[in-house]
Amino acid sequence: MRIMRMLVLFDLPTGSKAEKKAYSEFRKFLIKDGYHMEQYSVYSRILLSRDSVDAHMRRLKTSLPPSGAVTVITLTERQYESREVLVDTRPPATKGVDLTGQLTLTF
């Protein structure tokens, strides 16, 4: 048995009421089908076999919204675990600020 991870990335329009409804229904489908949100418009799900990947791919295809783009990436769990999450750890005051030649006083 090879544990897999399915990533679903989507970019859906939300300009009209109908598009917002389709977006909402697609998100609800993903959550109901066992996906969890990695970040906005990126959801993932653990699957236990290649057959399970194929079954979920078929379900995704039948639940696609009428417009927009949905991308699916299938990874082994080892590949998924080797991803790197990069987070800016600089203090907020220095982000995007050029402090060259300035005197900063901290009390």
Key features of this structure:
4 strands; 107 residues; alpha+beta
Write up what this structure looks like.
The termini are far apart. The protein is 32% helix and 24% strand. The radius of gyration is 20 Å and the shape is flat. It has a 4-stranded antiparallel beta sheet. The chain has 3 helices and 4 strands, in the order βαββαβα. The chain is an alpha+beta fold and 107 residues long. The model has no long low-confidence stretch (mean pLDDT 87).
Q: Could you tell me the mean pLDDT?
A: 87
Q: Give the low-pLDDT segments.
A: none
Q: What profile does the largest beta sheet have?
A: 4 strands, antiparallel
What is the end-to-end distance? 59 Å
Shape estimate: flat
Strand order of the largest sheet: 2-3-1-4
Class from secondary-structure proportions: alpha+beta
Radius of gyration over all CA atoms, rounded: 20 Å
Summarize the amount of helix as a percent range.
25-40%
Task: Give the SSE order as H and E letters.
Answer: EHEEHEH
Kindly state the number of beta strands.
4
**Tally of contiguous helical segments:** 3
**Strand percentage:** 15-25%
What's this model, at a glance?
The protein is built from 3 helices and 4 strands. With 107 residues, it is an alpha+beta fold.
Structural topology:
Elements: E1 4-11, H1 17-32, E2 36-39, E3 42-47, H2 50-62, E4 69-76, H3 77-81
Antiparallel strand pairs: 1-3, 1-4, 2-3
